[in-house]
């Protein structure tokens, strides 16, 4: 599986090389897995197909997942993300003073999208809630994730 190195991956790969465990690595498919708040113990996956280019594979992952968001929520979320997609890096940088929750509301994204997806993302990125985290942080992470190929790493035992 082809792996583009972004974020912490180059450092991890160097460490794995120094430890001599590269031959025990198994790269997993590019996906995001969320615990479902309304179904304790259940998880929902967003799978990003390798055959599609970045961004399109992200749209596919969101549209294909039928467990977390309704179609109206997906459409409002997609429309809400358009300014970030079109505006690029300068738009992302301008979002520094706006919290995730405020940005989502300003974009007309339903609160349930924030509750189902972005509470988990906010806590994963900075251990704080969406009403405290800058949307810039989320947009940077989403941008890098959507532009990357490859996935998570798991050690074989």
UniProtKB/TrEMBL annotation:
GO MF, any single term: phytoene dehydrogenase activity
A Pfam family it matches: Amino_oxidase
Parts of the chain that traverse the membrane: none
Listed GO biological process terms: carotenoid biosynthetic process
InterPro entries per UniProt: Amino_oxidase, FAD/NAD-bd_sf, Zeta_carotene_desat/Oxidored
A single cellular component GO annotation: chloroplast thylakoid
Presence of the UniProt keyword Oxidoreductase in the record: yes
Record-listed E.C. numbers: 1.3.5.5
Keyword vocabulary terms for this entry: Oxidoreductase
Chain ranges of the Amine oxidase domain: 7-153
Top-rank EC class of the record's enzyme: oxidoreductase
PANTHER family for the chain: 15-CIS-PHYTOENE DESATURASE, CHLOROPLASTIC_CHROMOPLASTIC (PTHR42923:SF45), PROTOPORPHYRINOGEN OXIDASE (PTHR42923)
Descriptive protein name: 15-cis-phytoene desaturase
Source organism: Handroanthus impetiginosus
The organism's taxonomic lineage, starting at the top: Eukaryota, Viridiplantae, Streptophyta, Embryophyta, Tracheophyta
